[in-house]
Amino acid sequence: MPANRALYEQVILEHNKKPRNFRPMPDADHKVEAYNPLCGDHFTVYVKMNGDRIEDVSFDGAGCAISKSSASVMTMLLKGKTKKEAEALFVKFHNMVTANPEAPIDEADIGKLCVFAGVREFPVRIKCATLAWHSMLAALDGRDDSVSTE
Ligand code: ZN
What percentage of the chain carries pLDDT values higher than 70? Predict the structure, then answer.
């Protein structure tokens, strides 16, 4: 068991208890609903753009600790990023949570997202961890509808 495992869990629980950017956004440019029927996670992600840059991002709704904390960390990381940067970060995140549980984590590369490394051991949780990201990418593509993991 990695020594930083307890720290990771603490960060997830803290974000679950006090999610960042947890609010509706009445003047959002894009609004995408996200639903994970396997777990019951149900969020709405709001995005406000300034040209190609994400000026503001927020979410509301309800879900398990993994889905909620992942959405919270995502909103913190993506504010101020371009669409391309957001997509690149998602690829890294997705690669990490779907990797072999024994694979080493490059914390310097993945940054704050490393707290979700434990998800690799629970494949059913991958959908929880990536739910908000999928709706974010849909929003950035202008697909303002709803996304479901099913
Ligand atoms: Zn969940």
Answer: 98
Asked whether the beta carbons of 25 and 45 are under 8 A apart, the reply is: no
Higher per-residue confidence, 132 vs 149: 132
CA of 67 to the centre of ligand 1 (A): 5
Task: Using DSSP bridges, classify how beta strands 53-62 and 41-50 pair: parallel, antiparallel or unpaired.
Answer: antiparallel
Residue that is written with structure tokens 């694979």 in the block: 103
- pTM score over 0.90: yes
CA distance 136 to 59: 10
Which protein residues have a CB closer than 5 Å to ligand 1 (ion)?
Answer: 39, 41, 64, 67, 128
CATH code of the region 2-148: 3.90.1010.10
Rg of the chain's alpha carbons, rounded to an integer? 14
Instruction: Please give the distance, rounded to the nearest whole angstrom, from the Cα atom of residue 50 to the centre of ligand 1.
Output: 31
φ/ψ of residue 54, rounded to 5: -80, 110
Alpha-carbon gap, residue 102 to 104, rounded angstroms: 6
CA of 119 relative to ligand 1 center, distance in Å: 11
The type of residue at 128 is C
